[in-house]
Amino acid sequence: MRALYSVLFAIVSLLRLCAAQSGTLGLQDGFLSFDTPSFSVQLVKDSQTLYSLKTKGNSSGFDFIPADVMSQRQSNGNYHLGDLTFRARIVGASTWTSGDTSAQRHNVVVLNATGSTLAAANLSPTLPNNTLLNVTRRWVLNDGNLELLFDVSNSQKQAVEIGALGAPLEFNNIFTGRTAAETNELCSLFDPYIGQDAGYVQVTPLLGTLSPLLVLPVGKSPLEGWRFLPEDTSTSLGYQSQTFEGLYEWQFHTLAYAQNEWKNVTPWNAPSSATLQPGETRTYGLRFVLAPSIRGIEGTLQAAKRPVAVGIPGYIIPSDQPAKLFLSFSSAVKSLSVTPAGALSWTKNSDAKTSTYVGYTITGHTWGRSRLTITYADGTVQTVHYYVTKPAVQVLADLGNFLTTESWFDEPSDPFHRSPSVISYDREVNAVVKDDPRAWIPGLSDEAGAESWLAASVKQFAQPSAAEVAKMEQFINQTLWGSVQNFDGSVKKSVYFYQPALVPDYDYPSSIYWGNWWSWNQAASYATDRAYDYVHVIAAYWSLYRVARNYPDLVKTHTWEWYLNQAVMTVASMTNGRVGYADDGLMEETVIRYLLDDLKREGLTANATLVESRMRARENIWAGERYPFGSEMAWDSTGQEGVYAWATYFNDTTTAINALNSILAYQPSVPHWGYNGNARRYWDNVYGGKLQRIERQIHHYGSGLNAIPLISQFRADPTDYYLLRVGFGGLSGPLSNIDQGGFAAASFHSFADTLKWDGYSGDYGPNFVGHALEMGTYIIDHPDFGWQAFGGNVVATSPTVKVQTLDSLRRRIFIAPIAAWLSLDAGAFSEVVFDPATKTATLSIVPAAPGVSSAAAAPTARLVIANTASNGLGVLKPTTNLTQDAGAWVVPFKSGVASVTLTL
User: Fold this and answer.
1) Which of 60, 84, 425, 457 shows the greatest Cβ crowding within 10 Å of its Cβ?
2) pLDDT digits (tens, 9 = 90+) for 716-734
């Protein structure tokens, strides 16, 4: 095998050498080198594209540009920073003429560089002969900042319309061939704020601790669109693959795309074009600025005199929850408008505590996407992108109803023993997915097959419904236990398989190609060696335990003890040494920590000891690794959640903070519902989506799962409001996936020619788990914005703070100034009154979330209280005599309500 590897390595090296010798970028002719106050800069001499951008003062020599693999990216069609693409036409013509400096690359014409100009060139040689535009590119040092400028001139005798103009961005997001250490230490990820003149791109090193790069507009250079750049996918670096997502371009104008490739799509921003008269020149440009840290990005934007928007609780807003928007810019707000008309309304508020910000209260009216446009007095235009849902409790009710009706599969004769179950669903044809070449999708396991029953199970923990619990008991008793999960505790990778000889009466669709590796035969499907599959089963058992324990009249089949024992047995089976990936962080495994806490609360010492010892063994491994975030993939954003959960449990602060920083690097905060709190995922549509392609996914399960460590760490450090904003954005993401009928899509397609939810339910389930485990009403006293509630509505602030709870669960309240974490195992919060002077809280509790007829009523409220920070304040306690059961204060209802006052 080693000899074969040596031969293959030699072949690959020869191919790379040939590629290097035949490149058109001009690497062989050397570089131009410059220093700025922040960067060491290198341009390729022949092309004057960016070769290296290293931060000064960083001993590691971190480079934002993939200079180390540039020899494999020097061919025609490889995009680099400094390239330009456009579409133009003579005014009055109907056909656009395209230009692309990367397509047939030739040496540019070098121009004299004087004064603040570091390098300049005319791009005509590397553009088509029939181009309508003359372009000069300049690299400039302006007030200590590196800028890239394009002087675009009309060289015709007639007016020319520019219908598209884009600046490709190349940063080092190439993981191909790298070790875990190399990937984390050398690479970055970049995300846009598609906010017109206020837009920017943030480039964040994967370590999460290095200074991020901000790409800002110069002059009137709006970030109007964000386009994926197609390249050859057959090259050695694997463009548009799991190890190289690909590159994007900053689009200043987009009309030509909106009229063609995007004609069936509503783009993020209104498409524009620009008209140049004969001889007229317009300059577009980008500025490169370092922020001191990820948390310091907004401060850097303000220092650069860019508009800043802060949304509370974010940009996904249930229609019954007023949101807040705070704007900071040197020019006054002139007007606000919304598209579609009437989708949002707003009023000015006085919440801001300084003149730095002006505040607005935003109310959502029209379900789905909307765009708020802010026009400032100086002509600057900013767009903030919102997504409006139904009231949050209704969204959960819709989800549960859809899963247990439309997604309910009841065919007793099914040869794969999938009945009864909640099974995968295809929204585009409105039918369950009984067949798919990816065996797991119709096979009730893996993330993309288990997601429907996983979400349906966890929904009962979050908002139990008698009819839905009855369905889930059927599924667990008849299908999960004995079919998906074997009686020895092992869990199959799929119960569906492609092997016609074993099921001769089953009609496999002839329209499906069954020759791919993922069309497993029975032996492959019945393998039990994938630990990820076990966690879904644990979550289902744990959810039904919670229902049986706190709403005992809803369950008919098993006791709460049975569900708890099944969960423990599955943990034991998963960690018995015979299951693959068991020592990796597993998606949604925070549920196991909840399980362990419940075992302790119930006094089940033997089971608690077993679970704790198995988790300790795993965490001991992670404690010895710098990057313990391994998975099935070369790089992933799934392991951090589990690593953080157990590192904090076992007081391994170093590992926990490493995991947290890793998350912050790939989960941004921007004024856009799709990107705010959206953890980096880009390959899962291949394995779980209906539209299969490598693509930056919007609110795939990474959002909900990676929000768990962020929001948990905020509760431990309740003045780190950045964690709250990003974490709550991630927790809110799973609400946007659920349509008006209750169907939940796996993710939203971000490519500008698509911009729609995927047709498959896919692997939505883990996303909802994150939402259900941590969503609540978070109350803060912000230094800039005063008293605010994430997930609620502040209705009074003096002499006490009064908050309506409006989140989807109505089960949790966090009072940040005293780090009080209040949780209901049963019942629903309706209101909290907090007195900052006396540090007392009065809770109003009802049996079920109001407005949802299907929500089961709790027989009594069961309240759990904790202090999550090291603040020396202790834990709140009820002022009246209440009994405790399994760690919960039992609060009786009187005439359908309960009130309890807590004090230190």
Assistant:
1) 457
2) 999 999 999 999 999 999 9
